[in-house]
Amino acid sequence: MSTHQSRPSPREHNQRLLEELKPGDIVKFARFGGVYYHFAIYIGNEMVIHICELEDATTSRKMKKTLAASVSSSPQNKVRIAKESFWKAARDCKGKKANHERYECESFEFDEILRRAEQCLGTTDYHFLLKNCEHFVNRIKYDKEESQQSSKAKVGFGVAGAIILGLTAGVTAFAVINSRNKKEARRQSQALDLA
């Protein structure tokens, strides 16, 4: 007899999550298999306030373009902060309560969280590394403008940049040394020819 249990679907998982969430909680949804997370503030009655695309677009292609543009360029992209259904924000992704334990004692009360979030409704700037949905929810709930995922991305970009810089320097040094060695070999060959 098999005791194999199937994993709950994202909908079943999120239904259980909704039973645990309290108004003012931060919720995050894994996107693209956990490559990055989308964050929202839960405000009760299966509603959230979060950053979303300007148009009602659910295709990942638009978000990929937004991410690519914001990572690779300095101009910020326009997005909107909206009050929407938890289910619309979740798409087909599993959510998770994501309050920061280290800041919980500094959290605003729900009425203040809601007031602060509602003041932000409308169009705003977005930058994956500098002004994203995680920055937004942390500013609203804790008055802390930070994003762990963008900090990790910045470190990753820094490491990648250092590796590329190191490789470039190594290739350049090799080319210079190789060029000098060839010149020296030609001089020695010419000296032998004269002798």
TrEMBL record:
A matching Pfam family: LRAT
Domain LRAT residue range list: 28-149
Top-level taxon of origin: Eukaryota
Record GO terms (molecular function): N-acyltransferase activity; phospholipase A1 activity; phospholipase A2 activity
Membrane-traversing stretches: 155-177
InterPro entries: H-rev107_PLA/AT, LRAT_dom, Papain-like_cys_pep_sf
Cellular compartments per GO CC: cytoplasm
GO-annotated biological processes: N-acylphosphatidylethanolamine metabolic process
PANTHER family noted in UniProt: HRAS-LIKE SUPPRESSOR - RELATED (PTHR13943), LRAT DOMAIN-CONTAINING PROTEIN (PTHR13943:SF77)
Family assignment from sequence similarity: Belongs to the H-rev107 family.
UniProt name for this protein: LRAT domain-containing protein
